[in-house]
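Structure ticket #2291
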Amino acid sequence: MVAVRYYSKSGNTKLLAEAIGKGAGVIPISVDEDSAKITEDIDVLFIGGALYAYGLDKIMNDYLSGIDGNKVKKAVVFSTSWISKHSIDLIKKALKEKGIEVADETCYVRNKPNDKQLAEAEAFAKKFI
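Resolution: structure written out below.
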């Protein structure tokens, strides 16, 4: 089973999540929705967020801390931001602390993804399916 989870305030990460979801053949779910909770075993979890004031948003941090590491076999991280890619490091660290294997390869777009970047994100997701 594959899942896509994300948190987006500006909509940029949501756009990237939708492209990844298209490539993975699943509908992405925002981590602030009740249906985002992982209740089944997941082979590949695509998870993304961005930096807000140099850290992850509290909603994303809460979601990451609530993940059952025994339910996720592998995670793939994605992000958008205009500052830096630091959110990727923070998400990876939180997942690894749960004992989840995290792919080295990530998907990052600075600012709002354009059509070419969205197509690349869709292709990126297919590599892990």
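Closing remark: Residues 12-24 form the longest helix (13 residues).
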